[in-house]
Amino acid sequence: MPNHFENKVMPYTANQMFDLVSDIENYASFLPWCAGARIKTENEVENKIVITADLIISFKAFREKFTSEVTLVSENHEVLVRYLDGPFKYLVNNWKFTDLEPGRCNAEFMVDFEFKSKILQGLIGVVFNQAMLKIVRAFEIQAATLYDK
């Protein structure tokens, strides 16, 4: 069961980082291995936005779609992801952004998952940490592209 946690100070506001991570439909333009992203539903529930979204992950011969429920809690700058359907036994992914001094925030990222397939689980185990670092770095690069103007 690979899991990854990062806690990093970013030179952007919590709101900027929250907006970036909340922009699911744009993931395919900057995230490695993301071949597509589609919002299926979006509803407001108790001052939160709850989105059902499909992501298509593509890596070499592996191409899978999975569906998640994404809850956007803007007042706390949190993005909570709960797995619904696809190649995983489970998947949990959370982001939390906390403002520090003006123009900076603390970014917490956590992901924990397990594939249904033992073969896929074995393959990802070899490269998991490098893959997670690359994904987090892609968000950092996208933030710089959007906000360092």
What order do the helices and strands come in, and which of them pair?
Layout: E1 3-10, H1 14-22, E2 34-45, E3 48-59, E4 62-73, E5 78-85, E6 88-99, E7 105-115, H2 118-147
Antiparallel strand pairs: 1-7, 2-3, 3-4, 4-5, 5-6, 6-7
Task: Give an account of the 3D structure.
It is a single chain. The chain has 149 residues and is α+β, with helices and mostly antiparallel strands. It has one domain (3-147): 2-Layer Sandwich (Alpha-D-Glucose-1,6-Bisphosphate, Chain A, domain 4). 26% of the residues lie in helices and 50% in strands. A 7-stranded antiparallel sheet has the order 1-7-6-5-4-3-2, with helices on one face. Helix 1 (14-22) packs across helix 2 (118-147). The protein is globular, with a radius of gyration of 15 Å. The model has no long low-confidence stretch (mean pLDDT 92).
Low-pLDDT segments, ≥5 res: none
Secondary structure category: alpha+beta
End-to-end Cα distance? 40 Å
Which strand-content bin applies to the residues?
over 45%
Instruction: Give the H and E element order.
Output: EHEEEEEEH
The CATH homologous superfamily is named START domain
In spatial order, strands of the major sheet run 1-7-6-5-4-3-2
User: Would you tell me the overall average pLDDT?
Assistant: 92
Give me the oligomer status.
Answer: single chain
How many separate helices?
Answer: 2
**What is the helix fraction of residues, given as a range?**
25-40%
Count of the separate structural domains: 1
What is the CATH fold-level name? Alpha-D-Glucose-1,6-Bisphosphate, Chain A, domain 4
Task: Give the biggest sheet.
Answer: 7 strands, antiparallel
Number of strands: 7
